Amino acid sequence: MAMDRGRVRESLLLAMDTLGAHKFRSLLTVLGVLIGTATVILVASIITGLEQQVSSVSKQYGTDNLYIFKFKPGIQFKLTREERMRKPITYSQAMALARECPDIRQVAVETVNWGGTPPVMKYRGQQMVDGWLQGVTPNDFEISNADLAEGRFFTDVDNWHRRNVAVIGSDVVKMFFLHEDPVGKTLMVGGNNFEVIGALEPRKGVFGDSGSNRGVEIPYQTYMDLYPATKENFVLAQAYPGRRDQAMDEATGVLRRLRGDKPWQPDSFGISTADSFIQQFNAIIGTTALAMIVLSSIGLLVGGIGVMNIMLVSVTERTREIGVRKAIGARRSDITWQFLLEAMTLTGAGGIAGIILGWTASGAIRSFFPNLPSSVPLWSALAGFIVSVSVGLFFGLWPAMKAARLDPIAALRYE
Known about the structure:
The chain has helices spanning 5-21, 23-29, 31-60, 81-84, 91-100, 140-143, 156-160, 170-176, 220-226, 244-258, 274-317, 319-327, 332-368, 378-395, 397-404, 408-413; strands at residues 65-69, 104-112, 121-123, 126-128, 132-136, 148-151, 165-168, 186-189, 192-200, 204-205, 208-209, 215-219, 234-239, 270-272. By secondary structure, it is an alpha+beta fold. A hairpin with a 2-residue loop joins strand 3 and strand 4 (126-128).
């Protein structure tokens, strides 16, 4: 079925003329291909944007950090009973990591009223009900790469003297101190007054601003003094550069010993890294992508069936034309390629239209929903075009072969 360039060009032009003569029919025929291709482009753009955003957000907190909790930090859909019943990680266990793990540079501890009602924040008659109060050790800011917009971080002296000082997030600043300097002001949180000594730069989250922007952070010991019933601790351990995996092994060994985990028992705690967060998220969006590809494939299948039907109709309508072409010397391969190229041109045009539609939709998402990242990868456009053309090749094969097998004498007699 090989053809020289001249014959390919001639068949392609003939195919385009035929499609041009039936524009509306051609559009309806490739609608499924168009929608399927546009869906692939749009889904790929959103997934690519999310992957880039998750990677950026995870790494901004530090690639050498270990995140330690009583169960594995990250996306959890359902906890086992054993995970729910685990004892919290204690402050002393966290400090032991700093002493006994040579590859861990420093350790910070965070505590918050997990699952409790967020404390109400008040300042001069205004209040904020969706913020949160967290107690952290002073080195938490360094380990998590926090940047100051104004003021200072609290120190070990503030921590051990249990001073009521606070460093606030950017959303808290916007809420209470939009037109004034927050440093030195007194903010009431949960019925307790705190002197604001610093304000943080905004932090990005996966879907826009991070929830940490709504936080008020106070010294760890101050928090424990105010809320002595609090038991849960979240631990951040910073490894020396390039030693994160070794630090994880050391932390695992120390915590298993301190928490009494027997050799045959699983860890009674979880350790995550920036990479594991990225892998978790990629697994989730990978499943979502697979589901969307299946749905878009249905559109491509419907489009392919439509192409096959319309090509069969076209063969019937042009039976006499096929007879004339065969009578003047056209070979079976010429007829086959003519109809194949017509089908491939039809679906290829639908694919290009779908790519343009998907690209436009991706741009619209970026414009109207700036917090939802969207970036069209080149491979998705290329794959969309190849798949759309392949649909025409596959579903156009039977009509093309049917046209090529027509008897020229019978075709010439066809009315």
